[in-house]
Amino acid sequence: LGLCVSRASASVLNLNCCLVLLPMCRVLLAFLRGSQKVASRKTRRLLDKCKTFHVTCGVTICIFSVLHVAAHLVNALNFSENYNEDFPSINAANYRGEVSQLYLMSVLVPGLTGVIMVLVLFLMCTASTYAIRVSNYDIFWYTHNLFFVFYILLMLHVSGGVLKYQTNLEEHPPGCFNPNKTLQENITVPKAFEESFPDYTTEPFPEDLSLPEPFVQNNFMRICSEEPKFQSHFPETWFWISGPLCLYCVERLYRYIRSNKPVTITSVISHPSNVLEVRMIKDDFKARPGQYVILHCPRVSALESHPFTLTMCPTDTKATFGVHLKVVGDWTERFRDLLLLHSNQDTEILPIFQQRRYPKLYVDGPFGSPFEESLNYEVSLCVAGGIGVTPFASVLNTLLDGWKCYKLRRLYFIWVCRDIESFRWFADLLCTLRNKLWQENRPDYINIQLYLSQTDGIQKIIGEKYQALNSRLLIGRPRWKLLFDEIAKCNRRKTIGVFCCGPNKISKILHKLSNSSNSYGTRFEYNKESFS
């Protein structure tokens, strides 16, 4: 039973170790997501579940690793107690009764690599919990990169050859009788043979011996012509993980080559509520609204890189792109100090030939996200919570450059913040876009609703130019059920894309409402990306 369980769990581990790498091939996913011909909308929505799929595979690996280890502990005891003296080469232990648990777990290659793999997997799993990721993201990032060590050990783990199979079945079929072998060993001799040869003890059989009926099957004699030969099984793990592992390594190499040239930082702007905006330029950089990039600053950390959503994408008329990052951890704090040290908190945008000496910054990407689909619906509902507004900022910037070339004809934009100052991050963008749509006689194109969830009195967005937003500012939290009913009523029998970037609490409410039916024949398709 222990052998069956260990082999079965090993097959499950091979499959999941193969699949767990595929969701991390970000370039491949970005290509599939951006290709209308290769992937349909339903397929692209399935790609949005890549993170959930990755986590599911990781949890499965942890569960079946525990089962695999427990089964091998039973096997170690069985290998010791059931030592086969007839075929010594097939044994894992050296002799009967050997304390093979210690021998197999510390001396043999499979045992030693297995112990280290369990320790690595334990570190990766514990550091992936929500509490660790929120309190100290660095621990999660460093331990998760131990997967390279895990896969190297995995390939060594299967090369030990503990389990063996017989290679000479034709010369030594199972159950055959060896006439040149004595019967003093632990061989059960048929009674008919003993009656026919009562005086036979240790002498070899004569060549002209006729065997009794028990040794004759299917009209031929089952006689062994040679001793059995055993060989270790060829490891199957290579077949499972070699393809995805090579694909992932090739992609990482491609990403390294693509991002080895630093970008040119054009400006750094400090916004309220510890938010920093960085604008930059990079040759041949192209991105779609809703995508994100990975920033790497060697002066902050030689190994760490962090993802940030693009809030401004390059267009045909301008090459500038930018990100907004909230200062919430050690990496962002050090990054802010380096940038503001050089800019002296000055928001002036200088020409490239007059630019200041900012630290080197490398950009890897862009990579796809669910929010790319927001422009592919006729009607879209975008819900943001706090800094979760960043993916929608790039969509709004794109609409500011021109909206007629996209399928989108109506946009509901809901933004919930705790601090009134947070709305100032993109207040200018919202006002500019609203004024542009009014001038083009499309005031109904975008419906802006701003919610201030916490307040100690009447609050307004300061500034005369923000009067249009002050009229859209509401105190409290959105009444989501009424909001969905109103949108469904105004868009009968249409498919509406729902996009959310915010806390899980809001995400769960929107997901539930999107799956519920309504009397207007309106269908809501939910798309989510959570930063929590």
From TrEMBL:
GO biological process, one term: defense response
Membrane topology: Multi-pass membrane protein
Gene3D superfamilies associated with the record: Nucleotide-binding domain of ferredoxin-NADP reductase (FNR) module
Main location: other
Reaction equation(s) it catalyzes: NADPH + 2 O2 = 2 superoxide + NADP(+) + H(+); NADPH + O2 + H(+) = H2O2 + NADP(+)
Residues in FAD-binding FR-type domain copies: 258-373
Protein's name according to its UniProt entry: NADPH oxidase 4
